[in-house]
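Q: Please design a sequence for this.
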């Protein structure tokens, strides 16, 4: 799956995720309203996202092949891999050097780590 999307492709993907399953005719009308696109533009962008493995159009109904959450998780993983040689601690160090975590954010991260540890012990 290719997680690299341009701004328009991202907006289009978000529109599909928000409205799926959606008939292709309804999608065309929605894109005309949201983006001022003509039918061929909608189908061209949909085809590109189909080729990237994100969506499918079966029987005139557009659905995702990957959830929004799974897509952004893969995109985040790729970013950490490319930018920090796959080191999550290096990413967190870089992130927190520019932005101070709130106590609530730090506690949420602690809970995530604790849940991971509990899950790996089983």
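A: Design:
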């Amino acid at each position: 799956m290719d997680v690299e999307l341009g701004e328009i492709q991202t907006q289009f993907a978000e529109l599909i995720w928000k409205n799926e399953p959606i008939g292709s005719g309804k999608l065309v009308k929605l894109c005309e309203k949201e983006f001022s696109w003509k039918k061929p533009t909608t189908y061209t962008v949909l085809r590109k996202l189909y080729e990237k493995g994100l969506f499918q159009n079966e029987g005139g109904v557009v659905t995702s092949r990957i959830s929004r959450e799974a897509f952004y998780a893969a995109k985040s993983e790729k970013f950490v891999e490319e930018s920090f040689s796959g080191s999550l601690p290096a990413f967190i160090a870089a992130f927190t050097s520019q932005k101070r975590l709130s106590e609530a954010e730090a506690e949420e991260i602690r809970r995530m780590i604790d849940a991971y540890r509990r899950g790996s012990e089983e």
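Q: Thanks. Anything notable?
A: The beta strands are 22-23, 55-58, 61-64. The CA atoms of residues 54 and 66 lie 6 Å apart.
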